[in-house]
């Protein structure tokens, strides 16, 4: 096949990667919402927690997921759709930042696209993610964003990336210090 034909394939160009990832996630969002409209165990607890906005909900987890869910539930209500929209939005962020990392690290755009697409082959991403991931989705998105900002900042391509990366690290450290200080320890007393 001539090189011109191969290089114009849609699925490994940036727009194609975004369309395929978004389509894959939208398909799973709709399938999960329509065919299994019950909340998972983790989602059920989160639904109880976010009835009111607090500094913390569980000692073992930072409250970022709950804060995001609180905002999403103001739009969609306390339904399965609020959980699915939040989860798949975070996974979309993860995939797009991961693609950005792959484009920074891999010169060949076809291999960069394959690096992102291959994540669905992992059990935790390809199957388990659709059933019961809550805080892990925030972790995935934040980790990919941090690596991307670091790589862009290290390459000197954008001065803002270092500031964004530093702000994210500061926010994470401040949140961890807040949790360790005991300010968020009284998480069971506020449930009604």
Element layout with pairings:
Layout: H1 3-7, H2 14-35, H3 41-49, H4 64-76, H5 80-105, H6 109-117, H7 123-132, H8 135-154, H9 159-181
How would you characterize this protein structure?
- The chain has helices spanning 3-7, 14-35, 41-49, 64-76, 80-105, 109-117, 123-132, 135-154, 159-181.
- The chain is mainly α and 192 residues long.
- The protein has one domain (3-181).
- The longest helix has 26 residues, at 80-105.
- It starts with a helix and ends in an 11-residue tail after the last helix.
Task: Tag the structure with descriptive keywords.
flat; 192 residues; disordered C terminus; mainly alpha
- Terminal Cα span: 65 Å
Percentage of residues in DSSP E strands: under 5%
Q: How many runs of DSSP E, i.e. beta strands?
A: 0
Over all CA atoms, what is the radius of gyration? 19 Å
Which structural class do the helices and strands define? mainly alpha
What is the number of helices? 9
Order of helices and strands: HHHHHHHHH
Summed up, the domain count is 1
Q: Percent range for helical residues?
A: over 70%
